[in-house]
Amino acid sequence: MKKKTRLILIALLSLVFVGSMGMLVYRGMEYKEGEEIYAEAETLVELPDLSGLPAPAPETDNAETETPEAPEEPRPVYLDPYADALRNMDFTALREVNSDVQGWIMIPGTVISYPLLQGEDNQYYLKHTWKKWTSAVGAIFLEWQNSPDLSDFNTIIYGHRMNNGSMFASLKNYKKQSYWAAHPCVYITDDNGSHKYEIFAAYEVSTTGTTYQLGFSDDASKQAFIDYCLEQSVIDTGITPTVYDRVLTLSTCTGNGHATRWVVQAVLKGVAPSDTAQEVPAEPASEGPAPEEQPAAQPLPETEPGQPDQAAEEPDAPEEDQPDPALEEDADSSAVTGET
After folding, report:
1. Among candidate residues 299, 310, 318, 314, the one with its CA nearest the CA of residue 335
2. Average of per-residue pLDDT across 222-238
3. DSSP 3-state assignment of 91?
4. Overall average pLDDT of the 122-136 stretch
5. Do 306 and 337 contact (CB within 8 A), yes or no?
6. Which of 143, 243, 326, 332 has its CA 20 to 30 A from that of 293?
7. Which of 133, 105, 108, 134 is nearest to 117 (CA)?
8. CA-wise closest residue to 187 among 94, 109, 300, 125
9. Do the bridges between strand 113-117 and strand 101-106 make them parallel or antiparallel, or are there none, so unpaired?
10. 3-class SS letters over 258-317
11. Which of 314, 337, 334, 340 is nearest to 262 (CA)?
């Protein structure tokens, strides 16, 4: 009897081993396919060679306050070499494959260089590539409620944290001040040119945190949002956004469950109103209701398929309570890969 039980146990363990190996092989094939698909995107968009360019640096506002005795000569206009190289990217070929392509996102010196998409919800591109092929790799995509022209005060972009280091996996490195110093900028290129965002914060946040707020009723609510982000940050960049700027929030999973997400935030400098603008007398306040703030975005699912526990899908956000398109896998594969 004991011998029979032992044989049954061995047989079961063998099946589990074979199944696990099969899932690992399958996942490796998905990774390879994902690499090929996104390499094809780079070819179609004719991504310029940026290898010879110097590492980008954030702009500083620490200008010297010396009073010149004689008029200064005009200073040459600074031309960002990355923005200049990326500004003429043509997305026609990509859109012939998928009209959801909005542009391209890149962080120089990292593997983050992908088409930027936007779907009708935050679920589809968690499990589909830019070519709309089903894959655990997914895509990098905009919050569906955000304006595609990046004009919102807070624009959220989601991406998986893949175990092979692809997609948004490298965002985890912004826990280190030195990594930020080496990779301080995010570039997004769209039909309006290339935009340089300076990274100012990185931290872990609740999926229901203020970070995912989309609507702002006035400057006071924007300032409260900025203060919150700066307080949460684990790095000190010396960069402080203003209510006239635009914030970019990159969101991915943490690998520590479904309750929190890891975010990296960057700012696109705006232009403050002129101090010399004529003030208009304030009109009496109306008795009508105050404008409502748009509800916060729902965090995306936890991680790539293969996560042990999965939360129920939320209507407006990627599966589970995750802010970034965390990678979610089928429960059957989670025990094998354990990817987050």
Report:
1. 310
2. 97
3. coil
4. 96
5. yes
6. 326
7. 105
8. 109
9. antiparallel
10. CCEEEEEEEEECCCCCCCCCCCCCCCCCCCCCCCCCCCCCCCCCECCCCCCCCCCCCCCC
11. 340
| Domain 2-51+80-271+293-337 bears CATH identifier 3.40.50.261 | no
Residue 74 makes CB contacts below 8 A (sequence gap 6+) with none
What phi and psi, each to the nearest 5 degrees, are found at residue 80? -70, 120
pTM, full prediction: 0.74
What is the mean pLDDT of the segment spanning 11-17? 61
Amino acid at 134: T
Answer whether 292's CB lies under 8 Å from 302's CB: no
* 164 neighbors 55 (Cβ within 8 angstroms): no
SS3 94: helix
Instruction: Name the residue with tokens 């409620």.
Output: 145
pLDDT in tens, 65-121: 344 455 556 555 557 888 888 988 999 999 999 999 999 999 999 999 999 999 999
What is the distance between the alpha carbons of residues 314 and 312, in angstroms, rounded to a whole number?
A: 6
C-beta atoms surrounding 95 within 10 Å: 14
What mean pLDDT do residues 143-168 have? Answer: 96
Cβ distance 337 to 330 under 8 Å? Answer: no
